[in-house]
Every structure is written in structure tokens, then in C-alpha cells.
Specification:
This protein has 223 residues and is of the alpha/beta class. It contains eight helices and nine strands. It has helices spanning 3-27, 31-38, 40-47, 53-60, 78-85, 97-107, 142-150, 182-189, and strands spanning 68-72, 89-94, 112-113, 125-130, 153-164, 169-172, 175-178, 195-204, 213-221. The strands form two sheets. Strands 3-2-1-4-5-9-8 form a seven-stranded mixed sheet.
Length: 223
């Protein structure tokens, strides 16, 4: 069995075995996930059509045609859809059952119901994309979660992550947010020796009604 067929089989088995357990034990106990469960349709409508093409280029230039990408905390599936349209292969996951249902329909492939802290995958990916997802991980757990993800990143693989810009931790509508600026991110990176920073930039929010800024980090895994 080749990798493509095996991936399809593994995705189905993981989604089936872990979905109901994580929905009860992890999802509904988490106020952030509860928010996305209650607002899944609105969140999908607000984010699925956003244009993040400018953020893709520094990431995609490190990938070979047809490379495998892990979309970690995929939300609406917007970025996975863009990568699939460009010929890349995708494994996507999220912890909100309703969001995984919507994104699965959008992508026309299974989106896994998994969470960052209990992640179990079958191989390494050439790229990991974590757009506006790791910002929901508590700051005290962030290094551990990133290290867990790195286990699934191939040597010389590219890792993108983004955070709301700032230095605060706060909750809004039940959701937890961990904001980072350059100084805080540098402190975190010092604790993750397997990654080397390739590019760090700030950008404006692409949503017309939002005036905030985002910190975008592109990192390579060392051998």
C-alpha cells in the first residue's frame, strides 16, 4: 500500500476511534472549543473566503511539488483548500467537531478530530501550517505543544505559526488568547532548539472589521 492510500486509511481510523472520545473528554470541557461549537457556522462564513496568499509564499517556497502538509488547527479549512488547489497533499485536524464537519465538507476529504496536547500521527510532514491556532494554547504549555508538533515535521521541514500581536493573555467570549510579540516569541524559541527562525513578520488583520496585527513566524526544523 502506498503512502497516499495508507494516509486515507489512517485518517479514517483515527477520526473514527478518537472522535467521540475527544468530543466529550476534551472538546466540551474547553471553553474555547465550546465557543467554536456554538459559533461554527458564523466562523466558517467569516474565514473560509479570506485571502492569505501573501502569507503562503514564504512557506510554500520551502516545499517540493506534491509535498505533504499538516494543517494544525485548520478551522474552516481555508488554507488546506488553497494548498490542495496548488497540488499539495494535506492532513488537517481541529478539535471542534462542528468545525471538522464543515471543513471536511469544504475540502471533500476527512478532517481529523484531534487536539494539540494528545496528538498521535503516523509519519512526518514536509510542512506544518498552524495559522491562528496555537494562539489558543496556554502560554505555559506552548513550548511543549510545539515540541510535540516538531516530532511530526521532517528534517529541513518548514513550520508556520501565527499569533495575535502583543504580550497579553486574555479571554474573549470564552476563548483563550495568547498574544506574542517579537520579544516573547524569541524567549519561547530559545526553548526549542530544533527550530531555526527563517522569517518573522507582522501583518494587518485581513478581516475588514478587525484592526489588530498578527505575528507570523516561519521556521525550519534542524537535522
Amino acid at each position: 500500500m502506498d503512502r497516499d492510500n495508507l494516509e486515507d486509511l489512517i485518517q479514517y481510523k483515527i477520526a473514527f476511534k478518537t472522535g467521540s472520545r475527544q468530543k466529550g473528554a476534551l472538546g466540551m470541557a474547553n471553553p474555547t472549543i465550546k465557543y467554536y461549537e456554538q459559533n461554527a457556522a458564523d466562523h466558517f462564513r467569516q474565514t473560509a473566503a479570506l485571502d492569505l496568499a501573501a502569507l503562503y509564499q514564504p512557506f510554500l517556497k520551502h516545499l517540493q511539488p506534491g509535498a505533504w502538509v499538516l494543517d494544525a488547527g485548520c478551522g474552516s479549512g481555508r488554507d488546506s483548500k488553497a494548498f490542495l488547489n496548488l497540488g499539495f497533499k494535506i492532513t488537517a485536524f481541529d478539535l471542534s467537531p462542528k468545525m471538522t464537519k464543515l471543513s471536511s465538507q469544504f475540502l471533500r476529504q476527512e478532517v481529523l478530530l484531534l487536539d494539540f496536547e494528545h496528538l498521535h500521527l503516523s509519519w512526518q510532514y514536509e510542512g506544518i501550517w498552524a495559522s491562528a491556532s496555537l494562539l489558543h494554547i496556554e502560554r505555559s504549555k506552548l513550548v511543549s505543544v510545539i515540541n510535540k508538533l516538531i516530532d511530526y515535521l521532517a528534517p529541513k521541514g518548514i513550520f508556520y505559526m501565527s499569533f495575535k500581536y502583543g504580550d497579553k493573555e486574555y479571554r474573549k467570549d470564552g476563548r483563550y488568547f495568547n498574544c506574542l510579540d517579537e520579544s516573547l516569541f524569541s524567549q519561547i524559541l530559545l526553548q526549542i532548539p530544533r527550530l531555526r527562525l527563517k522569517k518573522l513578520s507582522t501583518t494587518s488583520d485581513v478581516r475588514s472589521k478587525h484592526k489588530g496585527r498578527w505575528l507570523n513566524a516561519y521556521l525550519l526544523r534542524l537535522l
